[in-house]
Amino acid sequence: MKTTITALALATTALQAQDDLAQKLANPVADLISVPIQSNIDFGVGPGDGTVWRTNIQPVIPFGISEDWNLISRTILPVIDQEGLAPAGDALDASGLGDTVQSFFFSPKESSPIWGVGPVLLIPSATDDLLGGEKWGAGPTAVILKQEGAWTYGALANHLWDFAGDDNRGAVNATFLQPFVSYITPTKTTFSLNTETTYDWHNDQWIVPANFVVSQLFKIGDQPVQAFVGARYYVETPTGGPEWGLRCGMTFLFPKS
């Protein structure tokens, strides 16, 4: 009987740990080290109806800076391959790193709703002129969300202005807004819907992709991971923008022991 009770207790603890991980994965400012590797391929780009494959390496690292506050570092480093954008030839074909977006959120360890604010930086890390803007940028960023049972809903936003870089390249004055909602099933499958809207104030242009993604939490040995796959439809794009795309990838998790 004691062995049975112990096994049941261990199983219950494991399920609670999975619940906790699934909830934290839906929270952009959770106290959890994670490394999402997110691949996106967009179709119908440019006058040549080409493709752009963008793999975002997105480490999220929390730091406890006091008893009550965390500092969450969120990095987006894109690896880009674009082909066939020009109607003839390879003038717009390029592969390499894009520009990095680095965000820092100061977030209370206990709050309802959950929120965080801080700075966001644009770092000109592109390895090819075609893959970046050659501009340094900075601005504010914020996130707010609510978790109620299996549901998570909220929004993340930032705004970037350029302050240095190549004067011959286009100015950066852009607002990003990402409302999101997700639902976690008892099997730790997560269904997510969001938009990743950007408004370019300098050129008076919108780009609005709507993403639907299905994710599954599981383990490879002792390593917890989440695999995901989804699709996106571009509600609004500038001339020559993509029409639709696909998303897939994995998130590697490093919970505190």
How would you describe this protein?
This protein is mostly beta strands and 257 residues long. It has a single domain (2-254), classed as Beta Barrel (Porin). Helix content is 9%, strand content 61%. It has one helix and 15 strands. It has a 15-stranded antiparallel sheet that branches. The two termini are 29 Å apart.
Write the layout of secondary structure elements.
Elements: H1 2-25, E1 33-45, E2 50-57, E3 60-64, E4 69-83, E5 94-97, E6 100-108, E7 114-123, E8 135-148, E9 151-165, E10 173-184, E11 189-195, E12 197-200, E13 205-220, E14 223-236, E15 244-254
Antiparallel strand pairs: 1-2, 1-15, 2-4, 3-4, 4-5, 4-6, 6-7, 7-8, 8-9, 9-10, 10-11, 10-12, 11-13, 12-13, 13-14, 14-15
Briefly, what is this?
The protein is mostly beta strands.
Defining key terms:
single chain, 257 residues, Porin, 9% helix, 61% strand
* Overall tally of structural domains: 1
Instruction: Report, as a whole number of angstroms, the end-to-end distance.
Output: 29 Å
Going by CATH, the architecture would be: Beta Barrel
CATH homologous superfamily, by name?
Answer: monomeric porin ompg
What is the CATH class name?
Answer: Mainly Beta
Task: Quote the CATH topology.
Answer: Porin
List the total number of helices. Answer: 1
Average pLDDT rating: 92
Low-confidence stretches: 8-14
Give the helices and strands as they follow along the chain.
HEEEEEEEEEEEEEEE
What is the 3D form? globular
**What is the helix content?**
under 10%
Strands, total number: 15
Secondary structural class: mainly beta
Rg for CA atoms: 20 Å
In percent, how much strand structure appears in the residues? over 45%
Main sheet attributes: strand count, strand direction, barrel closure = 15 strands, antiparallel
